[in-house]
Amino acid sequence: MIRHLSPSLPMTETSHPEDFQAEITRRYDAPMYRAMLEVYGDQIHPGFLNNDDRDIREAALRATARLAELARITAGTRVLETACGVGGTARFLAAECGATVVATNIARSQLAIAGEWTRDARGADRIRFEYADYHALPYADASFEVYWCQDSLLFSTERGRALAEAARVVRPGGTIAISDLVVVGTPAPAAAALLTAISAPGLWSAEDYRQGLEAAGFEAIVTEDWSRHVLPSFELIEAGIAAKRARLAAIASEADVEETLERYALWCRAARTGNLGWAALVGTRRAQS
Ligand SMILES: C[S@@+](CC[C@H](N)C(=O)[O-])C[C@H]1O[C@@H](n2cnc3c(N)ncnc32)[C@H](O)[C@@H]1O
After folding, report:
1. DSSP element (H, E) containing 191
2. How much distance in Å is there from the Cα of 260 to the middle of ligand 1?
3. What is the DSSP secondary-structure string of 245-287?
4. Nearest residue (CA) to ligand 1, atom 22
5. Is 135 touching ligand 1 by the criterion CB < 6 Å?
6. Is the CB of 110 under 6 A from ligand 1?
7. Which terminus of the chain is more solvent-facing, meaning fewer CB atoms within 10 Å of its CB: N or C?
């Protein structure tokens, strides 16, 4: 049974969240996701685009830098990053902010790439990659100063549980910093159907996340609306896939590339409805919940 705060879009009905989780792991471990790194680089999320941006990575790093600023990450800050992709953000936080980062993921092939790409990186001695599901973190209570999760809670079938885990592992007075795709407004039936189709297990709104953070034990929650960046980001990613089609097909397959292009075309369509947004939220762990 999946529990959630009345989200603005219904979560996909499934009595087996673990099956969905296994599907997500398969997706991120698949050759096509290795191929997608040719487009994303090491930042697997939308970005803040400048007019002259030709690829998404620099833009995505600007979003990461902004979240780090909101979370006030400085030298020595102990960060737990969940759903770390291939470690781009962990490397940024260690090298640019001087943080110490435990970066976790359930996709083992991404963890392997993260390790490889970090070997010679600046600040590598302050980064550790580990397997962990954000619904059940293998860490002691109050063991981190910052919990960080970028553009990955949308894959959770039990977001309340994931946020409760965040609150458990962050020390009182510590920080949660997240960004994610969100639903904006009340989509008309066609837009709602499109969003539900592409975003299983269902998107939350920024307000759902704010309430979720509050319920988990966070206060002084600040929300930033990054929605205007979503469509240009997805358009740039879609163009990147089309431009690198042959290279991607050599890593995965022509059929995989075709399917991925169709998926990103749908994300662009969803963004054009005005009901697909992007939000960052930062909050402080209450002394007691
Ligand atoms: C869109 S990528 C974002 C990666 C990274 N945060 C970034 O921004 O570059 C989503 C990530 O979520 C991870 N993920 C999905 N469900 C997870 C879970 N239950 N626990 C930990 N990681 C998960 C996937 O393996 C993937 O690395």
Report:
1. helix 189-198
2. 17
3. HHHHHHHS-HHHHHHHHHHHHHHHHHHHTT-EEEEEEEEEE-S
4. 83
5. yes
6. yes
7. N
- For the record, the structure tokens of 8 come out as 């603005």
| Domain covering 33-285: architecture | 3-Layer(aba) Sandwich (3.40)
pLDDT in tens, 136-195: 999 999 999 999 999 999 999 999 999 999 999 999 999 999 999 999 999 999 999 999
**Confidence bin at 13 (pLDDT 50/70/90):** very low
Q: Angle at Cα 76 formed by Cα 70 and Cα 77, nearest 5°?
A: 35
Long-range contacts of 160-163 (CB under 8 A, 24+ apart): 160/3, 160/4, 160/5, 160/212, 160/215, 160/216, 161/3, 161/135, 162/82, 162/134, 162/135, 163/212, 163/213, 163/215, 163/216
Cis peptide before 187 (omega within 30 of 0): no
pLDDT digits (tens, 9 = 90+) for 252-274: 999 999 999 999 999 999 999 99
Among the atoms of ligand 1, which is closest to the Cα of residue 86? 9
Residue whose CA is at the smallest distance from ligand 1 atom 24? 83
Total Cβ atoms within 10 A of residue 252: 18
Residue having the nearest C-alpha atom to atom 10 of ligand 1:
152
HSE-up of residue 277 (Cα within 13 Å, Cβ side): 21
Residue 158 CB–ligand 1 contact under 6 Å? no
pTM of this prediction exceeds 0.85: yes
Q: State how beta strands 144-150 and 78-82 pair.
A: parallel
Instruction: State the Cα torsion 35-38-40-41 to the nearest 10°.
Output: 120
